[in-house]
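User: For a benchmark we're assembling, each entry needs the component sequences followed by a predicted structure for the full assembly. Here are entry 17's components. Please fill in the structure.
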Amino acid sequence: MGKKELKVAFLLALRSLQRGSRSSVLLTILIIGMCFTNMIFLPALFNGIGQSITQQVVDYEIGNVLVSPKSGDQYVSDLGATLDLINGMPGVERATPHFSKGATLKYRKRVLGATVRAIRPNDEKLVSPLYTKMVAGSYLGDADTGEAIIGKPVAGDASVKEEDEFQSSLGGVRVGDSISIDYGNGYVKDYRVKGIFYTGWTQSDSAVYVSYTDMALADPKATDNADYITVKVKPGYSEKFVKDELLQYGVTQKVQTTADLLAKSMGRALQSFAIINMVSLIVGIIITTVVLFIVITIKTINSRRQIGILKAIGVDKEVIMHNYGFQVIIMAVLGIIFGLIITLSMAAYLSAHPIVTPEWSATLYLTPWDLVQNSLILFAASLVAGYVPAYQVSREDIQSAMRA
Amino acid sequence: MIEITDLKKIYRMGTVEVRALDGITLDIEKGEFLGIMGASGSGKTTLLHMLGLLDEPTSGRIVIDGTDIATLTDYERTMFRLYKLGYVFQDYALVPDLTVMENVSLTAMLRKDRTEHQYHEASTDILDRIGLLDRQDHLPRELSGGQQQRVSIARAIVNKPDILFADEPCANLDSENSRMVLDLFKEINEEMHQTIVMVSHESWHQEYFHRIVRLRDGKVVSDGVNDKGSGT
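Assistant: Structure for entry 17:
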């Protein structure tokens, strides 16, 4: 095929689309666009959910690297020295310990079981964005004693009756109120609620945070122990690098990256998402291929006589085949562009208005590679769908075509 | 220019055998305006299709300008049609989505020996000659039947083919438009020495032909020079 042949094939294709049935062309572009959106949307949403959960786990649970007790130990011991060691490592932004205890909260006549987490508030600020999630009052300070911050679901809403509550709460605690915490070991203390936060991460929102100083009074083991230490990695450093550094330079505890932990805890969910994504992708490809195959088959059947005439006047069958090929290429490109516009509009909308559930909030997670990959897959499927009928009809003998 | 030897075309429909062409032997000279006439079913169009390389004979031989067309591959046949032959159809057979200019230029665009400037100039000249230059941007459906057939003729001759085949080109036209088309063929034949082979069943068309070959049941029943063949 030379340049001239391709030029004629393109001219025939362009004119057919411009001057043929516009409604059928627009419908085909619309269908390709919708198939593209369908192929992208569900995987992007699942990826968004995965990213959201991962981010919340990183922000409020484990940081980038988690240092937890080695096998057989209950706590990360020798906390001061361990923290000094970790904080001195290259690539470590900050390490902060957590010490949790189950407790019973009391406020007026309400009683609620909850986890009390001890943190070092200033270090925690460098690792977790919890301090930015205050909806009332203020965040803890390192020197605070007798003060706590509580999750919004724990505080509850005074206007909702206890029997109407979806999740048990203290029934409307406000900043400045006093709540009693019974640690179950005989230590009971009243805390002033310094602030109320809401992160959107259930485990965090269901907890009460106090300072390490306060926790040490409730449980002396908190003085130099932690359930675990969360480590924030500096930008430009990988979690794996920091993990290896920690292990190499004498951290004897169990050291795991976010990826290590999520691979175990979310592996199955991610596998399920991958299966759904694959089904969605295959269905999208099949729909597009079948629709384009039908459209081009109908076009070629309706144009059989014209194809016969073109061949009769000396137009080569390759030119005729590429004519339909170009029509499919143009429709596929326009359909993919239309699909991209829909998808990116939806991504922008969901970015401003995320899908929120009690467990997570998600937006569409799209990478340029996702868009390119799906565009190429759809484009290839379109080419196959268009060229197969075009190839068949272009091989028909002139007499049969002209008699059609 | 064209040598036809014992040409046969047999269609088989189950056990029934139909001899559309039954041993045609004929020579056509360069510059002739040949009319192939006969009743419906006599084999006129089948013969034209064989000569125009639109169909293949069951047996026999066609040699055009020294080339035995049976030896050509499918691609060579296509190129032969593009470079050597022109075809005018009964129903004009224009591409409905192309303008008049695009229809006329289409085959010229494919020729490797024509630049864009050359084929555009050739198309413009032809359209001017047939009086449709001012309609060059119109679509076929915006033209009358006679105008469409003139565009079809322009498309067929824009490449200056060796032979022009016309399959009942006036069948869908009224007598005024038919005469216009036939006058155009006559002009082309006389001025460009264009060889024209035209199929017709209208007896008044014969006044335009130099020579008339009459067919009946796939056989040549008469072949002679037309004394009135200068046109009127």
